[in-house]
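We were asked to recover a plausible sequence for a given structure. The inputs and outputs are reproduced exactly as logged, with field labels preserved.

PROBLEM: sequence recovery
POSITIONS: 386
GIVEN STRUCTURE:
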């Protein structure tokens, strides 16, 4: 049996921190319901004390979702935790996500404190959040750059204080996958009570390594991943939900699974992109416009002969209507013949060669040759099978 990995989605909290991506409460509710339908285990609905709008969003999402855990973020402060607990009052399953910095950089320059003081504050925050009657997750901010011995001490202390999930974030996207994996492994080897909590990974994409780091963390023992739709988030973004979910599905030899319903991924990607006015880059894995598009003649020929020559995922599996053959100056005869046949025209031999020569002249002038352009070519060289 594959081990179930908890999917913690922070599209509505970390994702919404992207400039220009602010959502109204009613928009957040729409996305939250779709996230629940997608199969996520936890929805981080917002940072309740940050604004009245965020507070209201956590309240209303807590009412709207039926089974998924609703989470509210806090700092390790009494007022934050009080407000989060109030916002989560209607949640069937509520979680307070509290924490503090763990790296010396944060301890010295952000908190102007000491290791001992932030450790005590973190433990107090977990105990106080626990007293509110909710599940508690603790984040050790900037754990990717924290001293390992201190990170062990902090993890052990917050678990003892009542945290059922401990988040080990690579807050700045600094880590390399093998070193981040070793960091998680080190915790499992040295935190005495680690079996009493779930270790979570929350990775940023500053060096383009968020997904790789997340998977490395899971391989080394983490059992919750913190992700966003389309990989949106602070600075260069977060780990992409769709990438992690499909890695587990494609690489079943890893022995991990999630509750994600992959056929719903593409539609939700489009919904989030549209509501947040955040375009998805064309070459984005899984959901980008070019993820299942083929334009090179060699690739097109191989794909038309057998799709698995160049596709490791069936596009329908993630809700994409179909693969596409894009005709450009790099396309070959096989792709041109295929597209013409879809339009009702059949060319062979010298007719196909002549058509292809005319096509290349047109393709050199245009970035992409559309069906209407092909129809013009067909009028000049008509060979119709209809």
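RECOVERED SEQUENCE:
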């Amino acid at each position: 049996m594959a081990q179930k990995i908890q999917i913690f989605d922070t599209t509505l909290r970390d994702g919404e921190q992207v400039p220009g991506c602010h959502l109204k409460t009613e928009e957040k509710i729409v996305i939250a319901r779709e996230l629940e339908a997608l199969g996520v285990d936890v929805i981080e609905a917002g940072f309740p004390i940050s604004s009245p709008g965020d507070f209201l969003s956590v309240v209303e999402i807590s009412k709207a979702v039926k089974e998924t855990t609703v989470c509210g973020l806090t700092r390790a402060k009494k007022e934050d935790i009080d407000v989060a607990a109030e916002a989560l009052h209607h949640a069937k399953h509520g979680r307070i996500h509290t924490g503090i910095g763990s790296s010396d950089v944060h301890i010295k320059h952000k908190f102007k404190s000491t290791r001992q003081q932030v450790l005590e504050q973190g433990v107090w925050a977990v105990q106080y959040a626990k007293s509110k009657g909710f599940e508690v997750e603790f984040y050790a901010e900037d754990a990717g750059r924290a001293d390992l011995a201190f990170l062990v001490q902090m993890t052990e202390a917050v678990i003892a204080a009542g945290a059922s999930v401990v988040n080990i974030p690579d807050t700045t996207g600094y880590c390399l996958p093998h070193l981040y994996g070793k960091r998680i492994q080190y915790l499992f080897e040295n935190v005495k009570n680690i079996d009493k909590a779930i270790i979570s990974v929350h990775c940023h994409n500053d060096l383009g390594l968020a997904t790789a780091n997340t998977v490395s963390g899971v391989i080394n023992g983490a059992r919750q991943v913190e992700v966003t739709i389309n990989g949106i988030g602070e600075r260069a973004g977060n780990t992409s939900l769709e990438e992690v979910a499909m890695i587990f599905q494609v690489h079943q030899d890893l022995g991990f699974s999630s509750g994600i319903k992959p056929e719903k991924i593409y539609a939700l990607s489009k919904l989030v992109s549209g509501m947040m006015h955040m375009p998805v880059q064309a070459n984005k894995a899984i959901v980008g416009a070019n993820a299942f598009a083929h334009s090179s003649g060699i690739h097109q020929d191989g794909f038309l002969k057998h799709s698995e020559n160049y596709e490791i995922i069936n596009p329908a599996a993630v809700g994409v209507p179909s693969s596409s053959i894009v005709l450009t100056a790099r396309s070959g005869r096989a792709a041109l013949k295929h597209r013409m046949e879809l339009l009702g025209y059949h060319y062979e031999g010298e007719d196909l060669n002549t058509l292809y020569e005319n096509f290349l002249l047109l393709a050199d002038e245009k970035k992409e040759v559309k069906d209407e352009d092909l129809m013009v070519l067909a009028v000049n060289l008509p060979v119709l099978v209809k």
